[in-house]
Design brief:
With 145 residues, the protein is mostly helical. It has one domain. Helix content is 77%, strand content 0%. Helix 1 packs parallel to helix 5, helix 2 packs antiparallel against helix 3 and helix 3 runs antiparallel to helix 4. The protein is elongated, with a radius of gyration of 17 Å. The chain binds fe (ii) ion (FE2) (2 copies).
């Protein structure tokens, strides 16, 4: 059994992102400046997270065994696009100071992160070679500075 370092780091990042989203939620209906700042912090960190997933993690694992099904990376990237599009429309509402809620975003994010934590990172941790794993971990740490 290899280490679960990638899973551990990404689970931590996922909970941090959910915490940032909670901050946004707590600021709804209160001070606009706080709401706006918390929204920026959430979006900034989520985009960094998606960036490292798409550019450093999903691209580093390309098994050619036909019996193994690892075609979920493109679905996950489609979900990133869907989530970012939704955030874009929430941001528009925020800028116009229209009311908005985060229920749909929360639902999408929880489903997405749960899939990654159950089906993606545990597999990568076991299947990729140690050298690739080191590279991935370095990249993850770059975005978590
Ligand atoms: Fe993701
Ligand atoms: Fe993720």
């Amino acid at each position: 059994m290899k280490s679960t370092e990638i899973l551990d780091l990404m689970v931590k990042d996922h909970s941090l992102l959910m915490q940032y989203l909670k901050d946004v939620e707590n600021n709804i209906g209160h001070d606009f400046g706080f709401l706006s700042n918390s929204f920026n912090t959430f979006q900034w960190n989520l985009e960094k997270h998606f960036f490292v997933e798409e550019k450093a993690i999903f691209t580093s694992y390309n098994p050619d065994e036909p019996d193994k099904k690892y075609d979920y990376f493109s679905d996950l990237m489609d979900q990133h696009t869907e989530i970012l599009t939704l955030i874009g429309s929430l941001r528009k509402k925020l800028q116009k100071r229209e009311p908005f809620d985060l229920n749909e975003l929360k639902k999408l994010l929880v489903k997405h992160k749960t899939f990654e934590e159950k089906n993606v990172y545990p597999v990568l941790d076991q299947e990729i070679d140690d050298c690739t794993k080191r590279d991935i971990i370095d990249r993850i740490k770059e975005i978590r500075l």
